[in-house]
Specification:
The structure holds 2 protein chains of 2 kinds. By secondary structure, chain A is mainly alpha-helical. Helices cover 87% and strands 0% of the residues of chain A. Chain A starts with a helix and ends with a helix. By secondary structure, chain B is mainly alpha-helical. Chain B has 8 helices and no strands. The chains are: A mainly alpha, B mainly alpha.
Chain lengths: 199, 161
């Protein structure tokens, strides 16, 4: 086949019939899904952040509450708020990808790559650091409990180890996601960008 | 852009230019199910991108831009799945293919890398070097040089077919 034949064959191809109504219905469904997700995330974040604020407020105003007897509630509330905020950030990043598509291909790929790098940093550094912070809270609480003699050191440290294993599993899953999925995507984007930069 | 006019424009664009979506999807995947999925993704991206259209370029050029950008980033999410499909892609064309010559052209386009696919698609659909450069973020000279190489590659691959 010559290039001329290729061009004439290309020009003579018939397009499939466009079902605009079905496309519009699908768009409407997607919009509803996005709105529902946004609403869910908003409510969850408000509850989680409100709960964290409440726990801290109770600690500040209630003389019977010490860090030692409320650390678990604070750690759980902090964890909940952390995950809710992570969900909101992920949702916003998901929406931003559409804005990137409006630019020319080079700029679009640069923006998507930038987002991928942010995601890698979040998965490998920020989330594990937040979890480490929660673990620190648990450890501090347990130290206070040991100090006040409410729990034996063996019991207290087993709780800390349990929390550490839990946080380690979550961090491992996230780091695995970054290494196995997000980093290869970023590398492929870099390759495409390099091929665009070649003269 | 009001909600009503956005929907009208979207419907009109789909009616007039839906072939672009199918051409891009077919150039980026051989599997019909994947093509359908990509077409849906491009439609959604187009819907989101519609309010930002400022009329400085042709609608077809803007649709191509959104479609190619989506296809280039969409492919990455299906890398593993695509690897499994690579074997299927290399299999001979089915005897009852509606247009074997067109299938052959798409198969050859799919052998090019993402940027090359984008370039040849735009050229086959009659866009100028300036328009192609604006869509992809390349200079017109660069577009010309690249297209010469791609056409040589395609000519060599299609020679005995």
């Amino acid at each position: 086949m010559s290039l001329e034949e290729m061009e004439s064959t290309w020009g003579s191809q018939s397009a499939p019939v466009s079902d605009t109504a079905a496309a519009q219905a699908w768009i409407d469904k997607s919009r509803r899904a996005v709105r529902t997700t946004a609403l869910f995330l908003l409510v969850t974040t408000l509850i989680a952040v409100g709960n964290l604020g409440l726990q801290l407020h109770r600690l500040a105003v209630d003389p019977d509450r010490k860090f030692a007897n409320s650390y678990s509630e604070i750690a759980l509330a902090a964890l909940g708020a952390g995950f809710a905020i992570f969900g909101v950030v992920s949702f916003r990043l998901g929406q931003r990808k559409y804005r990137a598509l409006m630019h020319d291909t080079r700029r679009c790929l640069e923006l998507i790559l930038q987002e991928k790098r942010t995601e890698i940093t979040a998965l490998t550094a920020w989330v594990p650091a937040t979890l480490l912070g929660c673990l620190g809270l648990v450890a501090l609480g347990k130290l206070q409990i040991i100090g006040s003699g409410l729990e034996t050191p063996a019991n207290a440290w087993s709780g800390v180890i349990f929390a550490a294993v839990f946080f380690l599993i979550i961090s491992t899953v996230l780091i695995h996601r970054a290494i196995a999925f997000v980093k290869p995507e970023a590398r492929e984007l870099e390759t495409t960008l390099r091929s665009l930069a070649l003269d | 852009m009001t909600s009503g006019s956005r929907e009208e424009t979207f419907a009109a664009w789909l009616q007039e230019h839906h072939a672009i979506l199918h051409k891009v999807a077919r150039s980026f995947s051989a599997a019909p199910a994947e093509q359908d999925e990509l077409v849906q993704d491009i439609r959604l991206a187009l819907w989101h991108a519609l309010p930002a259209f400022d009329g400085r370029s042709k609608p077809s050029s803007y649709i191509y831009r959104i479609a190619l950008n989506r296809a280039l980033s969409w492919k990455r999410h299906r890398r593993t799945y695509r690897a499994k499909l690579a074997q299927l892609e290399n299999e001979p064309l089915p005897a009852n293919s509606p247009d074997p010559r067109l299938e052959l052209i798409y198969a050859e386009i799919r052998h090019l890398d993402g940027v090359e696919r984008s370039l040849i698609l735009l050229q086959l659909d009659g866009f100028t070097y300036d328009e192609i450069g604006e869509t992809l973020g390349l200079s017109p000279t660069n577009v010309g040089a690249r297209l010469t190489r791609i056409r040589q590659k395609l000519a060599a691959n299609l020679k005995d077919k």
